[in-house]
Specification:
Blueprint (H helix, E strand, L loop, with lengths): L8 E4 L4 E4 L4 E6 L7 E3 L10 E6 L7 E4 L6 E7 L2 E8 L8 E20 L2 H4 L4 E5 L2 E6 L2 E8 L4 E4 L2 E9 L3 E10 L10 H16 L9 H13 L1 E2 L4 E2 L22 E2 L3 H11 L2 H15 L9 E2 L10 E3 L11 E3 L10 H15 L6 H17 L18 H20 L7 H18 L1 E2 L4 E2 L15 H4 L7 H14 E2 L2 E2 L6 H5 L7 E2 H13 L3 H13 L10 E3 L4 E3 L5 H15 L11
Antiparallel strand pairs: 1-2, 2-3, 3-4, 3-5, 5-9, 6-7, 7-8, 8-9, 9-14, 9-15, 10-11, 11-12, 12-15, 13-14, 16-17, 18-19, 20-21, 22-23, 24-25, 26-27, 27-28
Helix pairs in contact: 3-15, 4-5, 4-6, 4-15, 5-6, 6-7, 6-8, 7-8, 8-9, 13-14, 13-15, 14-15
Length: 599
């Protein structure tokens, strides 16, 4: 039986990340990058697919665990009949090679501790050759090499294609394990000192979190979300991955399993907004610059998702030897959505660059020319159907949110030209496009009988993305059509107080069988919409409920099953944490609030 998704905590070095369970087992790690093949893949299979557990002998789950304040350093503690220990897990910000450091400290009594390491390269399929070299255990298979050492050395042996250690720690004693990866054709990289690395990691994280400008309610949840976003940032390029995992299911036992270890343009405006409002201008600028590099080229070739460095080819294939989380198959690597047409991303890119400009980030000369190219493409293509925000694998449709974001692109261009007439461009041309799109959406995407916008033209379905209409500025929050849409979405998409993405037969819409959980970011959008329309008390209550759904260390997956009380989907999910940050800043970041109408 797989561990619940919410049983995991995250550690990482801003180039890759690992998931550590409550029982001390490290069940997921891709080296050397987020999108590399996993060497620990028990998350999607079992222990024979790779894991590393450190815990007291014969112990099960821990007694307690927590991140050290304002950091990504995880402490896990066990209480046994013989005493208590603490295991401190972290990944130092790397110099050359990625390291996983696990420090065991005796807190009370005398405790026997076991370490079981099973390295399985290539997503759990390749058992390495392991040998002893100068007191290290060295595992090699193909391009991968991993070195394991302990300080001080402890008794270690090989058995059943695993590396086992057993030792006793007394109160005040410490044993540190360091696992280091490097390409097998290169020499072993310099050794890191585990205790110096721990001190420096804590200093680095606390210096970073001290820059946060938010000091309102639920600051701990906001800080944890910002740390998570920082951890999901690929430091060499500034790209932010949607999640560090692949194929965690949106429905247990279902097929809605996707690889999220890439960077989506749809997240760009909301990510940029969260970083800017929280005071992280350097990270916002790095993300903006990643965006400019990734989308450079012909506007017709714009993709919805790119690799960590802006790679364009992300071929999707299935791994047959992994059964999937709780037998939720298939396990997918890569993402076929890279080939989809989603018109909304053009608006999101233009909106992101406009936001960066308004926020005072250093100007990039190519940014405005890029926006003009994207607008020219939209002027020719905006009437076409597309796959929409949710990357449906069913027929293309005229999705209302996609058209709204076309309007956003034209609107931001008009505003830029009005503010700076020296910029090249035809304001009348973009104003005409903006007005035409607005008129068509209000005519074809609105159901006057139900007083709500719909998911697509001529459809009766609803979609949670419609909640973003006032946020985008397409209509003011007090417009009756906006209020009606919010009420309709809330009534028809609500499931135990949380929102689904869309209604009715999902297979007809997205081409896939089965159902899915409620989408957490959609419910954050509902909080924002309620607040914007003056229903602040309801917004606060719903936000409190959402914060309560974080796991014991403050992390959120993509979705939530309110019936079973379980998190679903890839974990932790950047979009969910972006939603938490932006909603907290909207509710509590200013002194002014909407007038409470009581709902």
């Amino acid at each position: 039986m797989s561990r619940p998704i919410e049983d995991y905590a995250l550690i990482g070095d801003q180039q890759t990340a690992a998931l550590v369970a409550r029982d001390g087992s490290l069940d997921w790690l891709c080296l050397p990058r987020f999108d590399s093949a996993a060497c620990f893949a028990a998350l999607l299979g079992d222990e024979e697919n790779g894991h590393w557990r450190i815990a007291p002998k014969d112990a099960d789950s821990c007694a307690r665990r927590a991140y050290r304040p304002d950091s990504l350093v995880l402490d896990t503690e066990w209480d046994t009949e013989d005493g208590s220990i603490r295991v401190t897990d972290f990944m130092p910000q790397r110099d050359r090679a990625p390291d996983v450091v696990r420090i065991i400290e005796g807190l009370k009594g005398s405790v026997t501790v076991r370490s079981t390491l099973r390295l399985r390269f290539d997503y759990g399929s390749v058992v390495p050759w392991v040998r002893k070299v100068d007191g290290h255990r060295v595992a090699v298979a193909g391009p991968d090499s991993v070195w394991l050492r302990s300080e001080p050395p402890v008794r270690t042996w090989g058995r059943d294609f695993g590396t086992h250690s057993e030792f006793t720690v007394e109160e005040g004693e410490k044993v540190a394990f360091v696992l280091t990866w490097h390409p097998s054709h290169e020499l072993r990289p310099p050794l890191v000192d585990p205790y110096t690395s721990l001190r420096e990691s804590l200093e680095d994280w606390r210096a970073w979190t001290s820059r946060c400008q938010y000091d309102g309610p639920h600051r701990d949840a906001v800080i944890r979300s910002l740390i998570t976003l920082k951890a999901l940032t690929y430091a060499p390029t500034g790209g932010v991955v949607a999640a560090p995992t692949t194929s965690l299911p949106e429905e247990i036992g279902g097929v809605r399993n996707w690889d999220y270890r890439f960077c989506w343009l749809r997240d760009s405006t909301l990510t940029l907004g969260a970083l800017l409002l929280a005071g992280y201008l350097e990270e916002a600028e790095a993300w903006r610059d990643w965006l400019l590099r990734a989308v450079a080229g012909n506007a017709a070739d714009l993709q919805i998702v790119y690799g960590l460095a802006g790679e364009r080819r992300l071929p999707e294939y299935e791994i047959p030897w992994l059964p999937g989380y709780e037998n939720s198959a298939p396990v997918r690597i890569g993402n076929e959505a890279v080939e989809q047409l989603q018109l909304d991303v053009y608006g999101e890119v233009v909106d992101s660059l406009a936001l960066a400009h308004r926020s005072g980030l250093a100007r990039r000369p190519q940014a405005w020319n890029l926006q003009l190219c994207l607008l020219e493409f939209l002027r020719e293509k905006w009437r076409e159907p597309d796959q929409g925000l949710w990357e449906v694998r069913g027929p293309r449709r005229h999705f209302v949110y996609s058209k709204v974001m076309v309007w956003v692109a034209a609107d931001r261009a008009v505003r830029a030209l009005e503010e700076d007439p020296e910029l090249p461009g035809d304001a009348d041309r973009w104003r005409e496009l903006r007005d035409e799109v607005h008129r068509e959406v209000c005519e074809k995407g609105y159901d006057p009988e139900r007083n709500t916008f719909t998911q697509s033209y001529g459809s009766t379905e609803l979609d949670a993305s419609l909640l973003l209409i006032p946020h985008a500025g397409f209509l003011p929050p007090d417009d009756p059509r906006v209020v009606g849409t919010i009420d309709a979405v809330r009534a028809e998409l609500s499931h135990h107080g949380l929102l689904r993405r869309y209604t009715s037969d999902q297979k007809e819409i997205d081409g896939l069988p089965g159902q899915e959980g409620t989408f957490l970011v959609c419910t954050f959008w509902l909080v924002d919409a309620l607040h914007m329309t003056g229903r602040t008390k309801e917004a606060h209550e719903l936000f409190e409920h959402l914060v309560s759904l974080t796991n014991d260390v403050g992390l959120l997956a993509e979705e939530y099953d309110p019936v079973c009380g379980r998190q679903l989907g890839n974990f932790p999910q950047a979009f969910s944490h972006i939603g938490l940050v932006n909603t907290a800043l909207a509710l509590f970041g200013e002194d002014t609030e909407g007038e409470d109408t009581g709902g």
